Amino acid sequence: MQRLFSSQPLPDSMRGAVVALGNFDGFHLGHQAVVARAVALAAAKGVPAIVATFDPHPARLFNPDAAPFRLTTLDQRQRLFGAAGAQAMLVLEFDAALAGMHADAFVADLLVARLGVSGVVTGTDFVYGAKRSGNGATMQAAADAHGFDYAIVSPVLADGEIVSSSRIRAALQSGDCATATRLLTRPFTIAGIVQHGDKVGRTIGFPTANIDLGSYLRPLYGIYAVQGHLADGRVLNGAANIGIRPSFDPPKELLEPHFFDFAEDLYGQTIDVAFHAFLRGEGKYDTLEALTAQIAADCDAARAIFS
């Protein structure tokens, strides 16, 4: 699975590919349908399938002060696209130049001249070009003019509603892990490097693997039943706090998973923490004893979920 960038030359082996176009943040059921169509079309043509994703997200360029909202990192998307059958991920580096590119130039200069696409697949809501001037109708006209195939994939419904990244974000912000998991087809997962903390958890018998939240969406603050996926393939059950730790001063926003029956050193390692169930909201405790008792109860609740 190759990672390509729009600012760099395209390898000759990737010219003539079928390209799935979109943001694909989260890679939920709807995104999966678009990429599956592109992979199938590429296989029928005997050419590579490329998934193109914008990074940074266009919303970040137009509103740089927006709260973090990403559901996946580029690394996560690359793994997901590869598992779906694509041969490469193309990172469309979204800057002022790309934002200002006319819809006609986006097709003629990027898709046709630089990529030599033989096919393009999008969802019905995909727009492109300056001021969002390009859409499915203009892409079909461009496909006819330039001689490449174009397929548009209808929205996927779940529970009678369209599957969307915004719907998943709303579920996570309300602590509804079940809905997010169903729409993503896997638990929402934060990947990060384990960093040193104040080591209070270790002193009370509940060591944690502290992870910075980066650009990820902040789920509802609180305690979750989680699983940690290590680089060596091991999966660890645990309970995690995500939030600002109101019992400690100064407050500090972190993801702090505690893994059951595990005492190895994880510092400096990149791990994935998958959110399986919301247990309770964050709370402030006046004594360390009260906090310790609550953590023990949270761990019991998480163990019961995984058993």
Describe the secondary structure blueprint for this structure.
Layout: E1 2-5, E2 18-21, H1 29-45, E3 49-55, H2 58-62, H3 74-83, E4 88-93, H4 96-99, H5 103-114, E5 119-123, H6 136-146, E6 149-153, E7 157-158, E8 161-162, H7 165-173, H8 177-184, E9 189-195, H9 200-203, E10 210-211, E11 222-229, E12 235-243, E13 254-259, E14 270-281, H10 288-306
Parallel strand pairs: 1-4, 2-3, 2-5, 3-4, 5-6
Antiparallel strand pairs: 7-8, 9-10, 9-14, 11-12, 11-14, 12-13
Helix pairs in contact: 5-6, 7-8
Structure, described:
This protein is an alpha/beta fold and 307 residues long. The protein is built from ten helices and 14 strands. The strands form three sheets. The protein has a six-stranded parallel beta sheet, sandwiched between helices. A hairpin with a 2-residue loop joins strand 7 and strand 8 (161-162). Helix 5 crosses helix 6 (136-146) and helix 7 (165-173) runs antiparallel to helix 8 (177-184).
The poorly predicted ranges are none
Order of helices and strands: EEHEHHEHHEHEEEHHEHEEEEEH
Percent range of helical residues: 25-40%
Mean pLDDT comes to 93
The profile of the biggest β sheet is: 6 strands, parallel
Cross-sheet strand order for the largest sheet: 1-4-3-2-5-6
Compose a concise summary of this entry.
Helices cover 32% and strands 26% of the residues. It contains ten helices and 14 strands. α7 (165-173) packs antiparallel against α8 (177-184).
Features:
six-stranded antiparallel beta sheet, 32% helix, 307 residues, 26% strand, 10 helices, alpha/beta
